[in-house]
Each structure stands twice: as structure tokens, then as C-alpha cells.
């Protein structure tokens, strides 16, 4: 039996905690099991690649080669069987280590096939999954070389390990940047104080604003004196003689 890294399989293995990683293949296996395999054409291609022993596809199943039973050579035949799984309870006693799961065989999901099987070839042709000649790309191009180097770098690690490492690196960088902005020793930075009453708000335009205010005050004073004279003249003109 081929054991996957994340989905239920061996009843004695605890379910792994992988969040926030999204194990795409195991997640799609769960959806495929909800209907006939013809509703998930990718599963036919998946079986075909396992029969071919494609390394990139095998790594989606198991990163650790020792956990993959066909690491030495690909399987000759493959079939898929559908099981229903339930968690065991503490009341279900058993000899030896208690299993995490109990399962029941439900039905056959994918028929037994091998390379060159007419049924497999028919399914591949029906879904347009036959091997096609890919366009030639320059081997020394920058992007393919960068992707190959990155894959080789993360090859020994699982998906959750890579994701958590990236999160920890990002958090460390943010923390160091925050610490680098803090002043080291010396007097604390002076707080900005607003201008006192009667003082100009700034040195550049304070004098100009003061002159404008003095000019306006002088004009208001002259207007006030002019009104006072006009009021006095008018009062004297209306004075009656006895």
C-alpha cells in the first residue's frame, strides 16, 4: 500500500498538523473520492506517472524515499480502493498501541492497470493526457536554472517545514528592522511644543505675519478715530441754539 504524507492511510499513524500548508494532492484525493474517477481526469494521469516512476510526482506522495515502497523501481500494477475512515475512541480497547483510525473498505475506485494497458490508454486518450512533445527550451536560460536550483535546495524538506521557515525568516527581519529604528542611548528626542500665546508659529513667516497684523491693527485704529471724529462733528452740527 502506498502511504501518503498527509491524508489518512495507515490506521496506526496520527494525522499530521500541516497548517498553513495546503497539501494539494492529498486534498484533491479527498474530492476525487466523492465521485467516480472519471469525474477527476487528473487521477488517471497520476496513476500513469506512478507507473512510469516520475520522480516529481512521487515526491508529491512521499518526500522520504524510505517511506515509498517503490523507490527502487516503479510498480508493475496499480489499483485504487476506496475506504471510509473514522477516528477511534478511548472506549475501543485493543492489544498493543491503540490505532488512530478504523476504516472500512467501501468499493474499488480505480481498476487494476499497468503500462500499455488498453483501458489505461483509452482513458488517457479520452481526457487528452497522452504524452506530448514539449517545445524545446534553452537549457541555460535563467528561469529554468533558477527553478532547478530552488527545487534542489528545498528537496530534503517537507512543505510545512519550508512554509514555517519562510514565516520565521520574515518575522525575524521585521523584528530586526523595528529594533534598528529605536534610538541607542543619549537624550530622549524632544517633544514638539506648540507656540505660546503671542508668539509667531514659525520663524520664516512669523515676522511677516506680525507686520501684517500690526498694519491691520493700525488701519483699524485709524478707522476707529475717523468714526469718532465723524460722530463728534455730527453731534456738534445738530446742537440747537437757545
TrEMBL record:
The record's Gene Ontology cellular component field reads:
endoplasmic reticulum membrane
Name the keywords, alphabetized: Glycoprotein
The gene for this chain is Lmf2_0
Q: Does the keyword Glycoprotein apply?
A: yes
GO:BP terms for this protein?
Answer: protein maturation
Q: Name one Pfam family in it.
A: LMF1_C
Basic residues: bias regions: 181-195
Designated name of the protein = Lipase maturation factor 2
What domain of life is recorded for the organism? Eukaryota
Amino acid at each position: 500500500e502506498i502511504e501518503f504524507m498527509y491524508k489518512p492511510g495507515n490506521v496506526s499513524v496520527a494525522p499530521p498538523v500541516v497548517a498553513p500548508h495546503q497539501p494539494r494532492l492529498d486534498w484533491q484525493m479527498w474530492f476525487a473520492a466523492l465521485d467516480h474517477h472519471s469525474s477527476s481526469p487528473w487521477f488517471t494521469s497520476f496513476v500513469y506517472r506512478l507507473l512510469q516512476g516520475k520522480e516529481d510526482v512521487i515526491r508529491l506522495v512521499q518526500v522520504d524515499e524510505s517511506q515509498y515502497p517503490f523507490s527502487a523501481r516503479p510498480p508493475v500494477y496499480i489499483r485504487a480502493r476506496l475506504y471510509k475512515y473514522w477516528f477511534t475512541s478511548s472506549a475501543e480497547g485493543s492489544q498493543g498501541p491503540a490505532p488512530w483510525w478504523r476504516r472500512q473498505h467501501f468499493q474499488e475506485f480505480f481498476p487494476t492497470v499497468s503500462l500499455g494497458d488498453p483501458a489505461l490508454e483509452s482513458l488517457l486518450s479520452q481526457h487528452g493526457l497522452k504524452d506530448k512533445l514539449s517545445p524545446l527550451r534553452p537549457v541555460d536560460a535563467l528561469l529554468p536554472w533558477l527553478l532547478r536550483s530552488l527545487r534542489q535546495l528545498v528537496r530534503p524538506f517537507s512543505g510545512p517545514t519550508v512554509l514555517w521557515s519562510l514565516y520565521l525568516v520574515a518575522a525575524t527581519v521585521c523584528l530586526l528592522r523595528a529594533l534598528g529604528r529605536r534610538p541607542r542611548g543619549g537624550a530622549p528626542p524632544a517633544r514638539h511644543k506648540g507656540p505660546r500665546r503671542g508668539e509667531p508659529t514659525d520663524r520664516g513667516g512669523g515676522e511677516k505675519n506680525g507686520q501684517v497684523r500690526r498694519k491691520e491693527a493700525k488701519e483699524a485704529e485709524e478707522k476707529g478715530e475717523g468714526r469718532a471724529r465723524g460722530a463728534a462733528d455730527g453731534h456738534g452740527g445738530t446742537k440747537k441754539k437757545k
